[in-house]
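Entry 14: structure prediction run for VanZ-like domain-containing protein. Input pasted below.
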Amino acid sequence: MKVRALVLFLATFFCVHLMYDWWWRPRFQVYIGEENGWLDGPWLSFIIVLIISVFITLTLIQLKRRRFNLYFIYVSYSLYFVTMIFFLFFKSVGSYGYYIGITILIDELKEGKIVEALFNILYFVPLGMLLTRLKRSVFFLVSLLGLFLIEISQYSLELGYFDTNDILLNFIGLYLGRFLWLQLNNEIELYR
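Run finished. Output tokens:
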């Protein structure tokens, strides 16, 4: 089992490293700014890739066993919320505006910017998993109201754009997370 876990980790590390260099780091620098040259340092890149690889490896092992450690879940969600706050409120400080309508999303998908759309969906899946105890109607109301408030906050505090496409894509992510957890809930055991 240890050899399999090591092989899984090495394969995950390799894939995450490729994704990091190809996709994530260039976009992260856009959010932070080019003046922060420390982002190009090899140690920061290595640490980020290592943390993501360990997280993915542990998640896959626990999924295969159908048992999740509660401490792992607490740590994972803590890191998730810290990064979510960063991406929601600190990635575009000083730039603001609004995009209303779905035509911008369609244009972006035609231009090949599907990765950003997928990120907007996938990043809200874990939050959707947390909201499964809500009744369906309450889930819809809380989700849409929360997403609307996030977008209004970004615009009014000059921390980003009010974008109806973000509301749509983030809601799809929330609903997908809720759906996945409701499907997996009976098959996964939580333990300390």
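Notes: The chain has a mean pLDDT of 85. Will compare against the previous run tomorrow.
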